[in-house]
Amino acid sequence: MLLEVANLCVSYGAVTAVSGVSLGVREGSIATVLGANGAGKSSLLRAIMGLTPATGEVRFAGEAISRWPAARRVAAGIAMVPEGRRILVSLTVEENLLMGAYPRHDRQIAADLDNIYDLFPNLARRRHAPGSVLSGGEQQMLAIGRAMMARPKLLLMDEPSLGLSPLFVREVFQLIRRMNADGLSILLVEQNTRLALQTAADGYVLRLGACVAAADTATLARSDDLMHAYLGGAHAAPTVHGP
Amino acid sequence: MFAQQLMNGLMLGGIYALVAVSFTLTIGILNFLNFSIPALFMLGGVVSCALLAAGVPAVGAAAGALAATGLASLLVERCTFRWLSTSDPHIPLVSSLGFLIFFENLVLVYFGSDAVGYPSPFARASVKVSDLTVSLPQTGGFLLALVLVALCYVLLKYTKLGRGLRSIAESPAIAEMLGVKVGWTVSSVYLVSGLLAGIGGILFGISYLQVSWDMGSEVALKGVSAMVLGGMGNVWGAVLGALIIAVIEVMTIAYLNSEAVNVFVYGLLLVIIAFCPRGLLGDRVKMAERM
């Protein structure tokens, strides 16, 4: 297991967002976390990243990282594509990408930047434009490119398809599969249950902050009852969300 | 005569610019109006004055004064901004004001309430250029101020730390997610901001040959005005605003009435702000939307 989470709890004041969740991401695999809005999926990712106080244990590549600040987790090889992209609109496209490499001190940063530009020619054309001029889909590419600039071993992705056109959703998921084929392990939170189950190997279902099912995605996809009970029938949801 | 006054105004503007940029850094990056900056300015002047008077060589006196202002600024950060995330946003504002009063009165107790002569090692070195008297320490200070502001600009615009700072300015949460050590980086803002104010205080002593416990208040008020006039969060705007305010101040004293200085300076500030609410170099697009 590259990432192991045991009995993780996140509370905001009196509100419990995640209560006692355990899960794992195998080296080189994609795992997905499913659940309705407010099930605690984002809080779970934020806690793994070290962005919100949590109790319980998080192990990454064999090391207990629960007490590490976010910066140390990034340096160790965890990167995140947050919900809503959250690119830095006051920085240029290139500066956004360089921010992804912030904890790095090696000499490969410029070469990695070129690789990202090869992958996303749209970003290369606008490298000196502010992030605010990009379309939603381009912003998602920038957010993914920014995360890749950290050279992560594990990528946490929070709703990467949200608000994207069908074309871009397809492109993002192709990209996810390609990055995974290159050896990147991914923990994917996704409202689009069908796509997530098709893409990931292992799945976890959250409901009201607790993990109510954990299995390989083929098994989860077959259990209609579970899907209907916990995901509000999202099993049959259309491929595309958003405008 | 006019050229002489213009030059005097620009020299004074260099000092205002340092203070204005000091304010600009904390408000532009951290969205925090640091009321303690006038005290840091004053500490730069008073500590270097005390060290010079005690016979410390000029370089040592400057280093000691900057060490004092840097430490004071980090102390203020410890006890104000760090509490911002967990408290009502007005509390740190008030505690930075508390630090201003505390530092000023600490110096008042040790130094007394009278202005003290500044034992400048350069005294009144000056050269005559046709009928202009050019003060060498003032000119050096003015150039130093411009170089420091330019360095701040380069730091913010072109360095990795600068990118980290601008990320924090936009979103501390995203900066943290990307691996920026936000706490450490915020401290560096306070350090740079405090050092700029401290250098401003030393240059004030060298230029005007006296320091006092309350020397920061008037200068800081002009510095804040310069920042607003130039456009909040814009380093060059702060410089432009500082030079304009200082030149108006000097011209008013020379040609009108020294009692009327602040009426003219702040009156003009109000007029400009009324027509250009985002300042002279503020965000043009947003200004256009407003008009």
Task: Summarize the entry for a quick read.
The complex is a heterodimer of chains A (243) and B (291). By secondary structure, chain A is α/β, with parallel strands linked by helices. Chain A is 37% helix and 25% strand.
Find the CATH topology of chain B: ABC transporter involved in vitamin B12 uptake, BtuC
Quaternary structure type: heterodimer
CATH architecture assignment of the domain at 3-86 and 152-236 in chain A: 3-Layer(aba) Sandwich
Number of E-state strands of chain A: 10
Q: Write down the CATH class of chain B.
A: Mainly Alpha
The strands making up the biggest β-sheet of chain A line up spatially as: 6-7-8-3-9-10
Strand content of the residues of chain A, in percent? 25-35%
Q: List SSEs of chain A in N-to-C order.
A: EEEHEEHEHHHHEHEHEEHH
Structure description:
Chain A is α/β, with parallel strands linked by helices and 243 residues long. Chain A has a domain at 3-86 and 152-236: Rossmann fold (3-Layer(aba) Sandwich), CATH 3.40.50. Chain A has 10 helices and 10 strands. Chain A has helices spanning 41-49, 70-76, 93-100, 109-119, 121-125, 136-148, 166-181, 193-199, 217-222, 224-231; strands spanning 3-12, 15-25, 30-34, 55-60, 63-64, 78-81, 154-158, 185-189, 202-207, 210-216. In chain A, the strands form 2 sheets. In chain A, strands 6-7-8-3-9-10 form a 6-stranded mixed beta sheet, with helices on both faces. In chain A, β9 (202-207) and β10 (210-216) form a beta hairpin. In chain A, α3 packs parallel to α6 (136-148). The longest helix of chain A has 16 residues, at 166-181. Chain A is globular and about 50 Å long. The N and C termini of chain A lie far apart (37 Å). Chain B has helices spanning 2-30, 37-53, 58-79, 81-84, 90-111, 136-158, 160-170, 172-177, 182-208, 215-230, 235-256, 261-275, 284-290; strands at 116-117, 126-129, 132-135, 210-211. In chain B, 48% of the residues are buried. Chain B starts with a helix and ends with a helix. Chain B is globular. Chain B has a single domain, classed as ABC transporter involved in vitamin B12 uptake, BtuC, CATH 1.10.3470. In chain B, α2 crosses α9 (182-208) and α11 crosses α12. Chain B is mainly alpha-helical. In chain B, the strands form 2 sheets. In chain B, strands 1-4 form a two-stranded antiparallel sheet. A two-stranded antiparallel sheet of chain B has the order 2-3. In chain B, β2 (126-129) and β3 form a beta hairpin. At the A-B interface, α2 and α3 of A face α7 and α8 of B. Chain A: One of its GO terms (biological process) is L-amino acid transport. Chain A: GO terms for molecular function: ATP binding; ATP hydrolysis activity; branched-chain amino acid transmembrane transporter activity. Chain A: It comes from Xanthobacter tagetidis.
